[in-house]
């Protein structure tokens, strides 16, 4: 049974950066894309971006252009998402999720991390 | 970007009720539509992928239908553990946009 374990809660000041980790186990880490999703208080789920752990290729939602960096360390099966220039609007729970493709090309997020709360406050 | 619009935003229902949630895409997405259940304090969980397919362990009271731009999630007989927020998500293209969510509350 695969799982993804994320790093702990963070409190940051406006303008700072935060780096969240997502450690995968129970499946071949480089075989599945990792996606990042967040939920701000009282808001819905918001897709942020994806990374292919094998190639390191990434993509992200336009609103995070220039602020989000997704990386990985394949030696320890861990993906990272770093968000810079934080504002109060970035206060949210951040999730990583494994992206699976079935034989017909449909994809879905099956394994999710437990979530990492990030609070941005002065 | 493909916009996903769910309705209603919230609903109140009783145990045993039949519940239907709709999701509309701003452009055709074939059957590239997933549904997730999200309970407070927990990670979202996949319910249905590719409009109507299931992974093992999802109760049979959940079903999905639709194609193109209009999709439906149906809970045939609402159970106490089903009170949660439900999200549709398109997997047709990046960005993998979610609907705004439908909160199912106890009447």
Alpha-carbon distance between the two ends of chain B: 36 Å
- The count of β-strands of chain B is 9
Give me the secondary-structure category of chain A.
mainly beta
Quaternary state reads heterodimer
In round numbers, the mean pLDDT of chain B is 97
Uncertain ranges of chain A: none
| Number of contiguous helices of chain B | 0
Tertiary shape of chain A = globular
Q: What is the chain-wise order of helices and strands of chain A?
A: EEEEEEEEEEE
Rounded radius of gyration of chain A (Å): 14 Å
How are helices and strands ordered from N to C of chain B?
Answer: EEEEEEEEE
Give helix % range of chain B: under 10%
How far apart lie the N and C ends of chain A? 41 Å
CA-based gyration radius of chain B: 13 Å
**Percent of residues in β-strands of chain B:** 35-45%
Structural class of chain B: mainly beta
- Count of runs of 4 or more consecutive helical residues of chain A: 0
Binned, the helix content of chain A reads under 10%
Strand coverage percent of chain A: over 45%
Q: Which of globular, elongated, flat, extended, rod-shaped describes the shape of chain B? A: globular
Give the strand line-up of the largest sheet of chain B: 2-9-8-4-5
Please give a structural write-up.
The complex is a heterodimer of chains A (122) and B (107). Chain A has strands at residues 3-6, 10-12, 18-25, 33-39, 45-51, 58-60, 68-73, 78-83, 92-101, 107-112, 116-120. By secondary structure, chain A is mostly beta strands. In chain A, strands 2, 4, 5, 6, 9, 10 and 11 form a 7-stranded mixed sheet that branches. In chain A, strands 1-3-8-7 form a 4-stranded antiparallel sheet, with no helix packed on it. In chain A, β7 and β8 (78-83) form a beta hairpin. The radius of gyration of chain A is 14 Å and the shape is globular. The model of chain A has no long low-confidence stretch (mean pLDDT 97). Chain B is mainly beta. A 5-stranded mixed sheet of chain B has the order 2-9-8-4-5, with no helix packed on it. In chain B, β6 and β7 form a beta hairpin. Chain B starts with a strand and ends with a strand. Classes of the chains: A mainly beta (122), B mainly beta (107). The A-B interface holds A 35, 37, 39, 44-47, 49-50, 59-62, 95, 97, 102, 104, 106-110, 112-115 and B 1, 31-32, 34, 36, 38, 43-46, 49-50, 53, 55, 85, 87, 89, 91, 94-101.
